[in-house]
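PT: before anyone asks, these are the final sequences, not the draft ones from last week. 894 residues across everything. Please model them as a single complex and drop the result in this thread when it's through.
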Amino acid sequence: MQALDKNNNKPLYEQLYEHLRDDMLAGRIKKGEKLPSKRMLADQLQVSLITVENAYSQLIAEGYVRAVQRSGYFAQYSGDTAEPRVREPQNHFETQREETPQQQSASETLFPFSVWTRLMRSVILEQGMRLLQPVVSGGAYELREAVSGYLYRARGIFVPPERVIVGSGTEYLYNLLIQLLGRDKRYGVENPGFPKLPKIYALNNVRFEYISLDKSGMSSDELYEKRVDIAHISPAHHFPTGIVMPISRRCEILDWAEGSSERFVIEDDYDSEFRHSGKPVPTMFGSDGYERVIYVNTFSQTIAPSVRISYMCLSESLYRLWREKLGFYACSVPAFEQYTLARFISEGYFERHINRTKKRFRRVCELVTELISRYPNAEISEENAGLHFTVKAPENSEKMIDDCGKCGIKITHLDEYYADCSCCPADLFLVNYSNANEERIAELLSS
Amino acid sequence: MQALDKNNNKPLYEQLYEHLRDDMLAGRIKKGEKLPSKRMLADQLQVSLITVENAYSQLIAEGYVRAVQRSGYFAQYSGDTAEPRVREPQNHFETQREETPQQQSASETLFPFSVWTRLMRSVILEQGMRLLQPVVSGGAYELREAVSGYLYRARGIFVPPERVIVGSGTEYLYNLLIQLLGRDKRYGVENPGFPKLPKIYALNNVRFEYISLDKSGMSSDELYEKRVDIAHISPAHHFPTGIVMPISRRCEILDWAEGSSERFVIEDDYDSEFRHSGKPVPTMFGSDGYERVIYVNTFSQTIAPSVRISYMCLSESLYRLWREKLGFYACSVPAFEQYTLARFISEGYFERHINRTKKRFRRVCELVTELISRYPNAEISEENAGLHFTVKAPENSEKMIDDCGKCGIKITHLDEYYADCSCCPADLFLVNYSNANEERIAELLSS
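LR: through. Structure below.
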């Protein structure tokens, strides 16, 4: 292993993560090969144990490495040496940690409302009558440029501003995507998954299939079996199961998509900003060399649901098709909101807000998992992401639900997210802590 | 004829209009019957000639009366005595006059921007963190209440606020309506007409038919022949021909719609605020006793295209269906814009703005028609509505287009609005004066 460079701007754990990842991608570490123990590697590299832990955690989160209890760490993925599937992330690595709001905007209470309203007022002054002018179909250029810059910094992907298309909410964009990709296509949605998606496909009278998940996320085998054309997935953090799709499954799904020029992947990255630890999981959009992936994200989670601004990133060819087929639509977001959000992002407030929110929710998540693990036999599946996780609670679930409810933690049965609710294990629950009250949990823990 | 009441709050011309209209609806004046000449009626009623002229103009605009050159005025419509089709307008009659912006927002230059921004600032202060909260699916209640009140005052229709559904632009609402009314339906669009409509229906893969227009607007015979389920029309002022649909055709279309519970009329009233003279033409929504009409309107024309707020009014039964099928969608308009617009309407600024704009455009329209009528054989069809009219110009059209272009008057051939452009008369042009420069026209007229 090449020595880590302590004078490099990149954190050591990230350098280590990249070395190991590149070794696996290049086939220098083979699939199934055991990695050195954390302590041994720390000694060998003369770095702290925590540096190695962080690097391993990230590799586990992204599916390169598997941890086997009492056995150690094993490479799960090995690329061929020809061409690494995963492109080098192009950004300056972010040392951000994560957290997530889900459904409700949990970040709301931390939102720098006074900054936002100050920007609103200054947009009114500066833009003047320009506020009355319509913006172009894809959205105000200022906002698309700000989003492009943010994606480069935070998600390591470079999307030219014109290929960022702004719309009033992801639901609106899904409707547009059906018009863009075609109604004759067969869409595949995650089962379990967001219940709104099948509703939107059904209202559009397009054929769609429920695709089941295994522990790595959407089954790529079923995509072939059910002859799906468009796979609609959330690989960074699946709702409600919390699965982070490992690199192996991502590759399988990209392979599937490359099998036909009619196949596409809609990557819903709604939750990526709020991973609790490690760096954000890379996007599939960024590792897609064949223009098969459409990236979709929203500001409803990260700013406020009332803002109604989402965006999608298109490949060059889909962008041309969008212009031709859908470019006549007026942009559905008011100009004023676009200018305000553009300034909020480009002046750095957005990323600062994300960081504050992540810290807060990491703390809350620790409290909530501590609380829930006190119930006998409760098995928590927490993926360091999202404002939700799942718990298997065979006993005493009523008491757990009741106690947690008093602290603002919402625990619901998972069955409402299944196409057929009888497929859901009876003892599986979704824990949503976006509105959790820290003080109450702390009281309960100390009682 | 019953004497007019000079102490009544209603203007005399309106009282006269209502008397004559009611006499025709009740069958007391028969279809084809000649009305007294304007001068004779003015003498008989002891009112000014202008009062009679205004009443007759309104009756002509709404299709009750036909003017035959050098012959006089004839009743065109006669109802049966049983039940008048047109309900009594429920509002306090508006003495407003009209004008229209079309495509571009011509009202923009007159828009009270400082009032708008003052309201923006006070909404920020007053609503505070509530701005971050999502509004309900149909839109903020304040706005729906304000729109309901406006429709009552200005259009004489009563729609309970909850049945006003707010969305980000009419294009968005058309997409929703297809989901609401069904994709198995056959839609009928006006030919010529707005080119965006067939595009939206095509992108939704729903069957649609081009329905031709005669001088009264969309042919009701063709609705039967082509087995249309949903007729999409703009009866108040058709674009681009400027036709105001007369009462007889409105009744034919409502009769058609009542023939099946699957038939509906989408009434696009985009242009109704800007009639130049007379009172606004009544809505079909208001005369629909069988819940067949959906009313759609937008603030893009009257405020600014950048605001992106439109709305639709649903019948009780369609509102229930909307809640059930589409109520899961998040409202697509940011909360902030909705609160601001609600105040702009409810504090009276909106209607004052409309009135100012109408006056301005009536003046501009007079100048433009005077200018164009100077070209040999130019035949203007001006319906006292809209910011556009058509002109037949067999000769010298290049010079006319060129001269007018220098004054900001845009003259284009009408063929782009036809499904088959070869159906458009070669000498028919659309005159759009929304950006006309009054001073330049005045100069040209005096030169």
